[in-house]
Amino acid sequence: xxxxxxxxxxxxxxxxxxxxxxxxxxxxxxxxxxxxxxxxxxxxxxxxxxxxxxxxxxxxxxxxxxxxxxxxxxxxxxxx
Length: 80
What we know:
Blueprint: H1 3-23, H2 34-76
Helix pairs in contact: 1-2
């Protein structure tokens, strides 16, 4: 999977995860327990780490493609 696709999927997943959390428990009298809050925060941290890794891969791939194009253009020039 390409890094750009990973970024989009992670973003959609995190949007859905936060939206699910914002809806709250089914019964309004219930509250989230400590372990539920911990799981929510852990998934946010994992999502953040995955986003940083995918963004880094995207930047590296973009730079490699630019360098490849520059070298290709340079090789096309005639010798003088």
